[in-house]
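Message: Just now I want nothing more than another pair of eyes on a protein record. I am handing you a single protein, as its sequence and its fold in token form. As I understand it, each token names a local backbone shape. Take your time, and here it is.
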Amino acid sequence: MPTPRPHPRVATMGQPVASRGQTATPTLGKAMLNKYARAFFTRVLTPFAAFLIRRGVSPDTVTLIGTAGVVAGALVFYPMGEFFWGTVVITLFVFSDLVDGNMARQLGRSSRWGAFLDSTLDRVADGAIFGGFILWYAGGGDDLVLCAVSIFCLASGQVVSYTKARGESIGLPVAVNGLVERAERLVISLVAAGLAGLHAFGVPGIQYLLPVALWIVAVGSLVTLIQRVVTVRRESAEAEQAEQAEAAQDNEGKQQNASHGSEAAT
């Protein structure tokens, strides 16, 4: 009798199992630094990471502090229109993404909890950044259209991340690289915000970079969301067809075995 083939197991927590410090979905710090800069800053930050370990500081603590710094930079400076200094503060705390990974590697830790915490706090940081834009355009920026665009950027970014996590949680690979994923959303938004903040120092016309960037992120996020939904629909149909074919093969095998058994009995 043919041995039934096992069905694919559902992915854990909607995310691939990965430890902090290993290759996974790009975090805010990793998104803003290319591979050569990361290698440089990794060498620079290794002694600092070792110092924190000797002081008994955990990678989780660094992750929490880094996220708190990003949230503070976004929600304190951005609503006041201080985009340059807000981006400077956010960028400084971005290095926590490199420090906590460095610490995890030095400690030799491989933790599902660390990966989960990183991913969850990434959503918090994203919400704070676009929330800062929303508060500015709803208040001092006095532009309800751009306020609505910022809200869409915030909501679509969260949904884009959810579609991948949910697709993986039901056992699908969600094998698609979207047009504007988290790394692109953050780099475009933060670079534009930092440059737009130079208007306060007398640079003319540069304040329009942020509205343009938000429109780009909004449209790109919508395209990415559609790409992921279409991909999940296709992969779901393929998985169901494969399961039906497997079930048909199993039934055929059972019928053949039953037929052979009847012939042997006669």
Notes: Residues 1-19, 21-25 have pLDDT under 50 and may be disordered. DSSP finds nine helices and no strands in the chain. The first helix runs from residue 28 to 32.
